[in-house]
Amino acid sequence: GFFTREGEVGLRDGWCVTRQVPPAAFGTLAIYSLNKDHLVDIVGSGPGEIVDFDGKDAPKDMAYKRSRLEASKNLKVQLTYKHKGTTRTAAGKLVSVGPEFVVLETQDNNFAVPVEGISRMQVLDLPVRVHISSETKNPPKKTELGMAYLRKGITWIPEYTLKVLDETTAELTLRGSLVNEAEDLIHCDVHFVVGVPHFLHTDYMAPIAVGQAIRTIGSAVAPQQIRSQIMNRAAIVSNDIRANQFGLPPGVVEKKVSDEGGNVYKVLGRLPEMGGAAATDYTVYTKEDINLRRGEKAIVTLFVKKIKYSHVYRWSPPERMKHMLVLHNGTDTAWTTGPYLAVSRGRPLSEDLLKYTPKGGNCEIPVTAAVN
Asked: Fewer CB within 10 Å: N-end or C-end of the chain?
């Protein structure tokens, strides 16, 4: 699926931070400003924004420290500070900034860190940094950003119902079964596409999205994957092996970001493969304001149209005569390939596959084997 999202962000010295880059296919990730006077010139990904109060990266006076800490209130941070001649680290949600101390909140307790001793702050949970440049003298305070990317984990399956109304008219209903194993869709406009453009590198991820890990605060009881990680590390320690992975401070854990969405093909089971339109035959059905979380499925009605149909009979002895309905696509969209059920007066006529039919084209569907 091709995703787009947008929203307003606040900037500090032209920078903003976000939680993660989605598992975008190689060559499809675009982060851009919706303001024509602003340009996204740098997108960086790492362990989280780091500020060193050393007089080079950032001023080390108390007033600046407090202002920078105040701007990070309600975020999860890791602070490096000196206390009684020793360098210490502490991690938690920054809930208060006072004249002399800041207060960090964890699941177990709250504790104070002296502002004067703080030498470094790292913002957790927000490992991606985006810089906005502008031709104006002063950097902008806010902008509207957009993000677009192609990712795996979402698909749709078309299915039709054909209801015969009279001798020449029928009602054709197209429904789409939307299978979402990618990410939550909340109040989203979803475009169901017939005909897919050519993408060569869908099996490769954008380099900035590869191997992401979010550093966050560990809970009082570690989840299963973290407990397994702790046990594995304990086994390594018992063998006197050391590695950089032991550099995380107390209270901070590293969670790997999932590389891609769930397996939609596993969810779909053994459904038959269906052909479709060529890339040049491009039709979009739009459904607005959909709510569908990851792991959910929905059947969406995309159109209900009255169409004209006619009859044709074919006979190739010694076979039985075949009765076909010829459906005339006089609608404003192409019909994608999908299974159909044809009914008349509440009784089924046939169930088969409706083949891709462009605007102005015709398709044939079998009805019965007529006896000569």
From this structure: C
